[in-house]
C-alpha cells in the first residue's frame, strides 16, 4: 500500500535494454523527496495495474526497438489499446505524461512512445505534462534530466486540479505544503513534442537525488598546467564548481561464492527473444583483399537439420561471448582470478531499498563467475551516470574520486558526452584510467546490462540454397586513443573472425591427423524476422536496391531468390531490377564481383557501381558515392517509384549514406514532379508509410 501521507501516481515503464527501467527507477527515487509515492510497474505486468479504473496521474517511460517498434515488454499493452472496438472516450478519465526514448539515427524516431501517446489521445486521455522525446544519438540526459525536473510541478498541478474536481478544496493547501516540503527549486519547462525545440533552461537544483559536492582543493592525475580536459583531467569551470551528482543507487544484489562442481546453464536459457539453434559454420570467405581498409567476411551456416526458416531481407541474431582476454583482465583487476571457475549464487539482498528489486533475468541463479562475465554481462557497455556514481564510492584516490563525480554530475555533462559517450569508453577503460577504483562483483551485476546478441542481415535465399544461411560483415575495429589504451575488435565480429580463422587459413596452425580438415565450429543463432524489408509480393513490380559496402548483403538474397523464381516460373512476368553499389576501391573491396552473373542471366536489369577512393583519369570525374549515382538516373528513379509504383530499398550506414540517398530522392521527386522540397518530403513520407521506400540501416 502507498503511504497515506503521500500522493500516489502510477509509473509505468517499457524497456528493451534497460534504459527506460533505469529512468523510471530514478523518477521513483526522487518522488519521495517531493512528498509523492510512485507506484512503479513494468508495462507487461498488466495484472498489477488497470488504466481503465486508474484515477491518479500516470507517468510512462517507453523506449523504441528495431525500426520503430515498441519494446517487447509493451507489445501486449499496445495490442490491447489498439483494439478498434474501444470507444473514443475509453480513457477520458486518464491524465498522463509520457517520456519516449529513441535514436534519431533511425527513421522512426521514438516511434514506440509516439504510438502509445497517439493512441491514448485517440481514446480520450489527456496530458497533464508535455511529452518528452529523448534522443540517444546526442545523449538521453539532454531531455531526460529537464523532463524529470519539470515533472514534479506538473504533478503538483495535476493533484490540485484533481482535488478541485473532487470538491475537496479544503485539502488543497495541505497537498500544496506537502509537495513543497522538500527544499526544491523547480522551473516549469515548456517541452514540445520535438526534441529540436526543447528549451534546456536548467533553473534549479534537484534536491531528492542530488548531493552537492563542495569544491575540494585536490591535485588531479594530470598536471595542473594542462589546459585541455581529458577522461582523467578537468579544467575550469568544471574543476572549480560545486557539483550536483546523482544519489547513490541502492545495492540490491548479493553474490555468494560456492565450489567448482557443477555445470553451467545452456546458452539457450539466456535467450528470451526466441528459439535458439546451434548450427555449424561450414564456409568462410574473405571478400576483401589484404590491403583493404576494412576486412569483410562471408560465413555460411548449415541449418538443414533445424526448423530455422527465413525470407530474403530477414535478419537473425548471433549469440556471442565477451572477449576471453578482457574477461581474464577484469578478473585480475577485481582480484578474482582464482575464483573464475567457482560457481556463484546470485540473490536479492535482504532489506534492499531498491523498489521492486528482482533477480536479473539474464543472470543464472547458479553458474561460474567466468560464465557470467563471458556470456551474460555487456562488458563493453558505455557506463551510465548511475554506474559512475556507484564507482565513486569504490574509489580511494581523492583526485580520481573527484573526476568520477564530475563525469556523473550535471556540471560535467559535456565532459561525460565527450570522454565517455562519444569515446565509447567501457568499464575496463575506466578501471585503467582510475586504478584506485575497485568495484565489487555485485555492483557489476547491478549496473552492467545484458550482453545482447548481435543482429545480421541474411545474405542468401533458402529457395536458391536450401539448408544454408549466409551473412556478411565487416570486422569492426576500435583503434587505440587517449581514452582507450589498446585497440579492440567488435565483440561479435572479432569473435567470429577468430572462430573461423581455420576455415580462412586452413594450412595455418591446424593440426588434424585425420586428413587435415579444420574443425567444424558451431554458433548459436535465433530468428529476428523483418516484417517489411522483403521482395514485393507481386513479381511484376519493379524495384531499386541501394547497398554500398556490406549494405549489399540482403540484396544478394533478393537476387538469388529472384533468379530461382525466374527459373521455376518461366511464364511469370518479372519487373525490372536496379542495384546501386559502391565501395572504396574496385580491386580491394568490390564484395560480390559475381553480380555480373545476375546481370548476364537477366535477374538484374541494371547494375550501377562507384568507387569513392579510386583515382580517375577521365576528363569528367565519375561519381564517388551511391547517392551521386542515383542523381544521374533521376528520371528512371521517378518512373519506377512514382509512375510504376515500384519499391525502393536502402541498406547500410545511416548517417553517411542513407540520409544522403534520402536527400537525393527528395531532390529527384521535387525536380521531376515540379514541386517544392517540402512537398517532395511529404511524398517520400507517404512512400515510407506505404512501405514502398524501405530502409535497413545502422548507425
TrEMBL record:
UniProt name for this protein: Methionine synthase reductase
Main location, first listed in the record: cytoplasm
All residue ranges annotated as the Flavodoxin-like domain in the record: 9-152
Cofactor names: FAD; FMN
Assembly behavior: Forms a multiprotein complex with MMACHC, MMADHC and MTR.
GO cellular component: cytosol
EC numbers, comma separated: 1.16.1.8
Alphabetically ordered keywords of this record: Amino-acid biosynthesis, Cytoplasm, FAD, Flavoprotein, FMN, Methionine biosynthesis, NADP, Oxidoreductase, Phosphoprotein, S-adenosyl-L-methionine
Enzyme class: oxidoreductase
